[in-house]
Design brief:
110 residues; alpha+beta; GTP Cyclohydrolase I, domain 2; 3 helices; 42% strand; GTP-CH-I_C/QueF; FolB_dom; Dihydroneopterin aldolase; dihydroneopterin aldolase activity
């Protein structure tokens, strides 16, 4: 059996995310990246981590409203941990907040 880190990078959702009035009026792009530390993988015996469920869960945030990136990343982290990950890092970033900044993001790990 082997341990792996699975990376899902920059999955884009359109959602209402933020405390400011302009963030509550229209959706914005949010990029979600996730690193999943999984153990006990043995592909020849059909033992692997099915990350389709994680991607589907994140896509479910499309058109949803959440006030903070901290809340969003904690929710995603709890979901992946409940699916049997040993550890995970969830990173969200909003690329359209400031015109002179590539993005503003939050990392939740544990």
């Amino acid at each position: 059996m082997t341990d792996y880190t699975i990376k899902i990078e920059d999955l884009c959702v359109e959602m209402f995310l933020g405390l400011h009035a302009f963030e509550k009026e229209k959706t914005q792009r949010v990029f979600i990246s996730i690193e999943l530390d999984v153990e006990g993988v043995n592909v020849s015996q059909g033992q692997f981590f099915d990350y389709d469920h994680v991607v589907d869960y994140v896509r479910g945030f499309n058109q949803q409203r959440i006030e903070t990136q901290e809340e969003l990343t904690a929710m995603i982290h709890a979901h992946v941990m409940a699916r049997g990950c040993r550890a995970a890092r969830v990173y969200s970033r909003k690329p359209d907040v400031y015109p002179d900044c590539a993005s503003v993001g939050v990392v939740y790990r544990g």
